[in-house]
Amino acid sequence: MSNSPLSGAGMAQAVPARPAPRSFKRRSKRLKAALPYLLVAPAVIYLLMITLYPGVYAIIQSFHEVKFGPWKPVGFANYQKLFGDYQFWGALWNTLVMGSIALVLQCVIALALAFHAYRDPWVKGWRIIFLVPMLFMPSAVAFIFKLVFLDGRIFSDILIRIGLIDANLAIQSSTWMSRALLILADVWQWTPFLFIIFVAALQGQDEEVEEAARLDGASWPAIFFNISLPMMKPVIAVALILRAIDITTMFTNVFIVTKGGPAFGTETISYFIYRTGFKFFNFGYASAASVIMLILTIVIAQMVVKRAFVSARS
Amino acid sequence: MAAKRKKSRGENLVLRYLILCGWALFCVVPVLWFLSIGLRPRTEIITPTPIYFPTFSLDAWHMIWEDWPMGKYLRNSVAAIFGSVIIDLILAIPAAYSLSRFQYRGREDIGFYILSTRMMAPAIVAVPIFFLFRNLGLLDTIWALMLIYAAINLSFVTWIIRSYMLDIPKELEDAAKTDGAGELRILWEIIIPAILPGIITASVIAMIFAINEFLFTLLIASTPNAYTMSVALANFTGGSDGIIYNAIALVAFLAFLPVFVVVVAIQKHLSRGLTMGAVKG
Lengths: 314, 281
Hints:
The structure holds two protein chains of two kinds. Chain A has a two-stranded antiparallel sheet. Chain A has two domains: 5-62, no CATH class; 85-313, MetI-like (MetI-like fold, Orthogonal Bundle), CATH 1.10.3720. Chain A has helices spanning 9-14, 25-62, 77-83, 86-117, 123-131, 138-151, 154-162, 175-204, 207-215, 220-248, 252-258, 269-279, 283-313, and strands spanning 64-65, 72-73. Residues 1-17 of chain A have low confidence and may be disordered. By secondary structure, chain A is an all-alpha fold. Helix content of chain A is 74%, strand content 1%. Chain B is mostly helical. Chain B has two domains: 11-57, no CATH class; 62-274, MetI-like fold, CATH 1.10.3720.10. Helices cover 71% and strands 0% of the residues of chain B. Chain B has 14 helices and no strands. The longest helix of chain B is centred in the N-terminal third of the chain and has 32 residues, at 70-101. Mean pLDDT of chain B is 85; it is low at 1-7. Chains A and B meet through helix 2, helix 4, helix 5, helix 6 and helix 8 of A and helix 1, helix 2, helix 4, helix 5 and helix 6 of B. Chain B: Pfam families: BPD_transp_1. Chain B: This is Maltose/maltodextrin transport system permease protein MalG. Chain B: It is a multi-pass membrane protein. Chain B: Keywords: Cell membrane, Membrane, Sugar transport, Transmembrane, Transmembrane helix, Transport.
């Protein structure tokens, strides 16, 4: 353990700029080859600690029954139970349904807004106004929607005043209305994310191509659909992937607004894991669900995400 | 340029402003409504029919400072967030330097690994992370929050900084190299000053995500000891009195204002930051 102080890698790193004596030349060459690895290593090690460690931990835990006492090995029992658990499949289904509807709505709205805003003289102003919802804490947004639609009944009241309905909407007892509420909250808060990116992409495109098409008599919608949109494809892909990742982890709104109800109709996969693990303290079972999600994540990341980021850069 | 674009014929300006103004209203009206909630007495929030013109009251303002340790939640948030951003920068700047300025085996894979950690749903790692922090004795401390926020944002921060580093012309570096400067001195004296906007953008975006973080904070901070504003909100319930909306609304605005100011200041870089450098705004 009592190495000479000079052998520490930190020491060697701290003085590379000074001309080294001849005897150190070879070592400094080796150091030079190792330098890029040394520079990236701390970040990678840190990330391995929060991904690899929990991953392995979850896999091991998923083969045990973990309640309060010691771990009891149960083989594949957790997985068997999971595959027969309608609540797990329901949570997957809800995540998929709410996520894809929200994502499509956000994308279409953001594209429409970006198309109208990017040539507008007040584009900076629109950007700032549209950004506002995104900058509220998600937990605050959840409360805004809970108040307007559920507790405060403001939405119902306005509809009654207009004369569209006669009595308060029973949103909480309807699965689809509850889902719509969560989708609406997500669209409200996160459409700006896509909007900001799309506007930047539209502003960054080659103006000469646009101008040439204009001179040929093409209309703005034609330019948008035939020139701008195809050019934006890689950007749209990256933006949608980032958004899709966040949507599938939807938790805050479920936790605050619906608690997964009615009858588990709005329970997402994140909420399912939270509920089995931290409310029913069935950690082994929650870990099994985590492992399944982890595998899905890795597969999707390898197939889709890598490609999207590579093509967006080129 | 704007003038040239304004001239474009054949476009329906009425439709354009209808759409843009419509969405602007949709964005702003709920926010204003929430502000009015924060500035009214509790008795006028949940009523048989909503009250659209409430009496003005600062009840909630006094409540959050006097009945709750709001100052403490605020300090927790600020400490955890700034700590996490500093950890991120210390780890991300060398990593981004390595990924952008060197050619070596495995570089692409390492870069993609860092990126892919962004795709982990917090819920997937929530159970093991909870046990990890419990075994380390860090549950219910802002240290745990700091570490976890740093981990969540590290991929983002690294990729944003990397994207800015890729833009620096190689000649700048070569000139310094012929003067005999080492790699680390080049990083410190040339690269970092040149990509300062990128570093600031990455820090701001990391800050926003840290403020927003909910699930981990909920699990790690089990008592008001380590509550941040985001999770404190969810606990603003007065037992049988139900949710205390006016206090929630004021805290939400308290957290919103500084974020809004900072984001407006870096607006130009925002799109690039949000896509981890994939879009150059």
